[in-house]
Design a protein that fits this description.
- This protein has a 5-stranded mixed β-sheet with strand order 3-2-1-4-5, covered by helices on one side.
- The chain is an alpha/beta fold.
- It has helices at residues 2-18, 39-44, 73-81, 100-113, and strands at 50-57, 60-65, 68-70, 90-94, 118-122.
- The protein has a domain at 44-122: Nucleotidyltransferase, domain 5.
- It has 4 helices and 5 strands; from the N terminus they run H-H-E-E-E-H-E-H-E.
Length: 127
């Protein structure tokens, strides 16, 4: 009788351990409803982050933002404040020969303009 009870308990444990309580994928109900994107929302996701290049031109250092070449800190700050996608962050790409104060000024301008993150990127060659 004791051996019969042992066998029953072993079978019970075996079935409890090997049983799967997860439904098969084909039995799952779709939980996520796919919604169509509107033209406006898809365009907002493709905004480029602010990339400020700090370059050396002869004896003078300049800030380059897109196609604009800026020499003054105040002008750089005004241009950066126009950006709408400040949560994407900004990048400050710096050439080797640029003095530290220009690099610090570019990073400070990005922070004062309201960018959530500012990344410093050293570069030998930048566009």
């Amino acid at each position: 009788m004791t051996s019969m009870i042992d066998v029953v308990f072993l079978l019970l444990i075996f079935f409890l351990v090997t049983t799967t309580f997860v439904k098969a994928e084909r039995q799952l109900r779709p939980m996520i409803q796919v919604q169509e994107e509107t033209q406006e929302s898809s365009q907002q996701g493709f905004l480029e982050p602010a990339v400020v290049y700090v370059k050396r031109r002869g004896t003078q250092s300049i800030f380059k933002l897109g196609g604009r070449e800026i020499t003054a800190y105040d002008e750089l700050l005004e241009v950066l404040q126009v950006f709408e996608n400040k949560e994407d962050g900004s990048f400050v790409v710096v050439d080797d020969q640029v003095p530290f104060d220009m690099t610090a000024a570019a990073i400070q301008a990005c922070r004062e303009a309201g960018f959530t993150s500012v990344s410093y990127v050293p570069a030998n060659e930048s566009p």
